[in-house]
Amino acid sequence: MANKENELAAGNLHEKLQNERRSFMLNTGESCSSQTERPSSKFNGFFAEVSKDHDTMSQVLFSRNLRLNVALTFWKKRSVNELVAYLVRMQDLGVVVDCLPIITNSLQEDKTTISTRCCVDLLPLVKSLLRSKYEEYVIVGLNWLQAIVKRWWTQLSSNSESSEDEIWIAIYHNFNDLDTSAVARST
């Protein structure tokens, strides 16, 4: 139901922006016709190219806004497992970078809502963040890893064999082949 409402709201907003853009184009066309000189065709091509890119960017931002609203809905429902499953399913690093600091803060505050299983599910996405060319992505990934290590340091450093050992083995295997140049870049 919420997804359908989001789609309808985005569709109405998109139509509204399209109408505003058309009225803007009409108004600028009228102001140009009242002047004595007309703009050259070189500028007409430029404005057409900018308008085309604007439409593409608008569509990208609408899509991202919808994805972030869905993630926010999961977070407000206190359903971290569903949020993590959604992030893994979407594979959108931009949305992950927006959501991961909130998860990191929860880890740092020792909230019990985030399990080690959720963290293991996020590992492939965090690994992609650490390999990213964007510094902000690398920083967000490193902050999350730091929170993980601080939160579960006693389990990581102990030699006891527990059911969580397989989780830490998965963490080790996920990051064993990680190129350390990503870490070196951000420090």
UniProtKB/TrEMBL annotation:
One of its GO terms (molecular function) is microtubule binding. InterPro entries: Katanin_C-terminal, KATNBL1. Residues 52-164 form the Katanin p80 subunit C-terminal domain. Its main location: cytoplasm. It comes from the Eukaryota. Keywords: Cytoplasm, Cytoskeleton. It is found in: Cytoplasm, Cytoskeleton. One of its GO terms (cellular component) is nucleolus. This is Katanin p80 subunit C-terminal domain-containing protein.
